[in-house]
Amino acid sequence: MKIFTTKTELSLQDIATICLRHDTAKLRELRLKRYYRGEHDILRKRQRANNAPNNKIVANYCEYIVNMSTGFFMGKPVAYSSISENQDELDALQDVLSYNDEAAHNLRLAEEAAITGAAYELLYMDADAKIRFQVVPSEEIILVCEASLEENVICAIRHFRVYNLDGVTYQEYVDVYDKRDVTSYAYDSGALRVIADARPHYFDDVPVVEYENNKERRGDFESVITLVDAYNKAQSLTLDDMEDFTDAYLVLKGMGGTTGDDIAELRRNKVLSLDEGGGAEWLIKNLNDTYIENIKTRLQKDIHKFSSVPDMSDEAFAGNATGVAIKYKLIGLEQVRSRKERGFKQGLQRRIELIAGMLKLKGVADIDFRDIEITFTANLPSNDAEQAQIVKELYGLVSQKRLLSLLPFVTDPAEEMEELQKEQESMTGGEASDERGILGEAEHGAGSSMAPEKPTGD
């Protein structure tokens, strides 16, 4: 949740008012998470009269959409490099990221944002004075920002519950993070009570970072929930009709004197004796199977179309294996990924800025967050031979670090260049020649086909 105000500081009453507003606003995030878990509205369908069939089928397209879009976007770890090639500052940053298992953490952030439209992380110092960051459920965070073009964050409020051991009763708490301190309160129906006085968090700004899924902060499946509900209903009613068909009625004509005992004997003996002019037939409900399947097929296509997540089980999709064709079929998902990347990159830059401030305060390193280049790689089936050919064709036109970043199996171009340099030095017994460059030298000395021969003049 994100709100705007013209105030520069919030009073206790302001915080209580915001929390009351949050009590209602967070219901949206909770509903979206419920749908992701497969707890759809169809499960609350009322029982039909006379114990009639009442199937409640859940086709969890919501989970499928989130998992596919998240895997495509963040299935491969984010790569970092230093624009100024300052390896010391990059190593200091990587130490913090590795300590927090950043790759797994980013995947959780991307999943949270894909479900609710935005994800949040909290940076803090652990008991060993190490920098840590943790994903906080989106329904617990309120960002209070200036009502200005910059939308600077004034403070972050974490409004959360802690359940007792019975799993039913709970106590609500509120933590308020401003630019210097964090203050803790107990919360009860709009009333706040201080339980921990302001204490420093040591970061040089509000230590909560937002990662937007898109500009509107909408979840990946939020726009197709009604279509998913319709598909669930169609599937459930189809099975209801099938059971109704199985429970068909036997119609006896000209046998009005038939009793319950007669029916029981008929079931036992499997023999039916009819008077002259009498008859028997099943009364069944005619099912227009083609019509029903057409409706469900149309719903399926609309779900995939409007969520921009293709059906990977589609035979036409699976049978077309060329790289260009696959990219065309994933063009919608690529548009979703590009929007995610922009919002996520802003969050990562903010995270690095906070980490840099803390490392400078501790005297570990002086990092300029603007010097750190962030590279995302789509988790797409790649043709390594095709990518290597592209690198060969671009050799001499693009920097070697950039060429290495184009290869899908290289996650750290700077580290790869350093390792390649060491290999060349060990092979030549000294400093590797820089006349051809690392990539060119690798091809000449190690027999690699990564880069073509550099043309020589007369």
TrEMBL record:
Annotated spans, Disordered: 416-458
Pfam families membership: SPP1_portal
Compositional bias annotation for Basic and acidic residues: 433-444
Top-level lineage group: Bacteria
InterPro entries: Portal_protein_SPP1_Gp6-like (IPR021145), Portal_SPP1-type (IPR006428)
Full protein name: Phage portal protein
Source organism of the structure: Selenomonas bovis
The organism's taxonomic lineage, starting at the top: Bacteria, Bacillati, Bacillota, Negativicutes, Selenomonadales
